[in-house]
Structures are given as C-alpha cells and as structure tokens.
Design the sequence.
C-alpha cells in the first residue's frame, strides 16, 4: 500500500485515539474523594469497559432496538456501581459520570499527528461512540476530524459490516481507498472484510500495566505503527 | 430567545455560508476561456441552480430512490450545458465542473465568525449537500464545523422534516435548543415547523444584482442578522 492509494483515514476512537481507562480513573478518583469511597478505579474502569461488548451485542443481535452508546454506557455504569457497592450518587452525578466518555484525553501524539494527516487525507471517526459524544470529545481535546461518522449514522455497531460501509459511502470513497486505523485487531479484521486497508496502532498503555493485545504474528495488515506520528511519517505527510 | 437557550447552531450552506453563484461564474469563466465559449456565466449559474429544486423534488416525492446531491448536480449540469449549446467538454471536465460545488468560497465574514461561535456552541451543517461535498468545501475554506450532518445522513432532503429531526437527534439536542441559520425563509419555516429556533441572514449578493429574497415583514423568526459577525455579537460570543 502506498500513500496515494488512500483517500480517507477512518479511526477507531476509544483506546486508539483517547485513553478511556485513564479518564475513568481521573474522574472516578475525584468522585471517590468527594464521597469518601475506597475504590480501585482501574478495576472499576476495566469492569465498566468489560460490559461494553455484552451491551453492544444486545443491540447488534436485534434483542433490543437501536440506542446510542451514551445509553449503553449509562446502563453499564449502573451495573458496575452496584457491583462495587457504590450507592448514594445522585442523578446529576451519575449523568455526569456517564459523560466521562465525552471528556477522555487523547494519547500525547494524537492531535499533532492528526493535524499533519488532515492536510492530505479526509479524517473521519469510525467509532461506536455516538455523534454528540465524539463531537464533545473533539471540541474539548482539539481533535481535527473532518467528519464524525461510524455506528450512529450507520445505525449499526462495529463490527457489523454496515458501520464500515456506511462510513465509506458517506465519504464517497471506495472501501479499498479507506485506511482503518485501530488499536484492536478485531476491528481491523472486520474492516478488512469490507475491503478497507488496515493500520494497527500499538497503544501499550490502553489497559494500564495489564497489557492485553490481540495482534497475531501473521496479522496480514497493511501497516503496524507505534503511534500516529509514525503513521504520518509512513504516509509521508 | 437568549443565548443560553441554544446548544447547537445548524447551518444551511449554499448561499448562507458560501457564494455558489460567484464560484460557478469563476470556474465557468476559466472553462469558457479554455474552450473559447461566449457564455453569460451568471445566467448559467442561475439556470443550474434553478434545476436544484425540481431535481430534489424527484427524490423527495419518491419518484426516484435516494441519490446524493453530487449526482443531482451532475444531471442538472448536463441539462444546462445542452440548454446553453455547450458541447465538447470531456468527461473529466464535466466531472470537475460538478465539483465546483465542493470549491465554493465562503462569504467574507463566515470563517472568523464561525470560529467565534464554535467556542460556545456545537456547529453543524444542515445542508442538502452530501457529506463529502461539505467536507471538501470545509477543508478548502477552513470552515470549522463540529459535525457535517443534514440531508445525506437523514436520507431526506430539506424541507422534509426528517432532515431537521435527524440532525437534532444525532446532535442529541432537542430541536428547541437548535438554532437553524439560513439565508432562505422557506428553510427556516420548515425548521420552525420541527421546533427549531430560527435565524435569517441577509445574503444580499446571493443572486448577484438580481436580488431575490423571500423574507416577509411579519416573519416571526427569532433573529434576523446582516451576517455571521452580527450573529456572534447577538449571541455574545
């Protein structure tokens, strides 16, 4: 794959662009201090994120109608609060904690490298995050997306094919000229299945010290990079 | 309406943010010079734009399935070229001329005022232009949209209610907290019908010297402004 074979870069967001675990620990710690809670917020973050795929699955397989990710995050939070024995948060605190996903910090290389990449390529999110979540995150962090697309506009959660195909269609770019960028091999396999080119990014701190990555040796991807700076270098921008 | 009653500003684009007539004249003149054509490009622009509503109508009323605006612009161009007796453009020239809609220049106040407005509000396009058209225009002109929404993501051309409602839903903002900004009264009437707040912008040069505006005296809109700078002033940003 050469740089001129690509028109658009589509990005997974949680874990790939932003640090969800660090953000939950940050805001959980502040909430815990306010309420005098003794909670391991890293474990809490992992438990909340652990409910992500089961909750998405209930929409993907048609057991329930479409709901935006904010709603699934809320349902997951209520379960995890109960599991950790945290009671006594009021509705405003719960609603605000759900929105921690709108306030996640980007990995340190992200904004500068995306700004470089934007000069030559169309940059779009291809996340399971809903549009408003992704817009709020971008405004706060300065992420320079050209378009916020993905699951909500497709009404299909990744890894359903329509999430990828609707995004490529709205960008008016053939899937083969879209480069899917993600820190998760499973996302890239699904994108590749729809004809996308693929780039794996190592985000070694995504799961804290408990590294948990899924890249096999015989991955067959187009690119594997350490961070977005290396991606920009490899694409010559 | 006070500034804190609004969360998101949604914008019509053609005529409201960018000068479609001037852009067509600019690129038509260059094409005419290359081919030695004697064409009044202002009349040509008006004729091309004049086919816009009839072509949109064929999709709106279900006579044909959804097609993006780029396709309708192409069909309109082919009609207008024939009407003006212009033959001999090759396929690459026709495809490039269709994309003049991606290369329209913003009105002089637009970029600076949108940059001010973006600090406080979510800014989204609510245009009949397709996503890629609107993205290309924004990249070229530096229009700082938070999200590119509107007709294509709704699969409904304005003034169909779903164009407005889908945009508000994706922004997760109640229609009553969205301010629709347009230089066309009919667009604002349709937005108002879905509960949007409304702002009319005078774009006195939209139709060249042949001013053609539709704002009645008893308009009942929330705001009427001379340009986006006045809108930013009125909203206190």
Sequence:
């Amino acid at each position: 794959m050469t740089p001129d074979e690509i028109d658009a870069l589509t990005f997974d967001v949680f874990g790939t662009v932003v640090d969800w675990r660090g953000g939950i620990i940050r805001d959980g710690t502040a909430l815990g201090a306010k309420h005098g809670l003794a909670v391991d917020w890293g474990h809490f973050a992992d438990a909340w994120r652990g409910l992500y795929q089961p909750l998405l699955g209930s929409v993907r397989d048609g057991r329930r109608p479409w709901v935006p990710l904010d709603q699934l995050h809320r349902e997951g939070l209520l379960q995890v609060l109960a599991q950790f024995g945290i009671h006594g948060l009021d509705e405003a605190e719960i609603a605000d904690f759900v929105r921690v996903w709108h306030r996640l910090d980007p990995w340190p290389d992200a904004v500068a490298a995306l700004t470089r990449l934007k000069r030559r390529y169309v940059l779009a999110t291809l996340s399971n995050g809903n549009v408003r979540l992704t817009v709020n995150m971008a405004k706060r962090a300065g992420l320079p997306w050209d378009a916020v697309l993905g699951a909500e506009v497709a009404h299909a959660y990744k890894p359903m094919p329509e999430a990828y195909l609707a995004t490529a269609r709205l960008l008016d770019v053939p899937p083969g000229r879209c480069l899917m960028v993600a820190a998760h091999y499973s996302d890239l396999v699904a994108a590749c299945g729809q004809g996308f080119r693929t780039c794996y990014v190592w985000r070694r701190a995504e799961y804290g010290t408990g590294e948990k990555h899924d890249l096999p040796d015989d991955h067959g991807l187009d690119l594997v990079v350490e961070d977005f700076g290396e991606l920009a270098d490899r694409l010559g921008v």
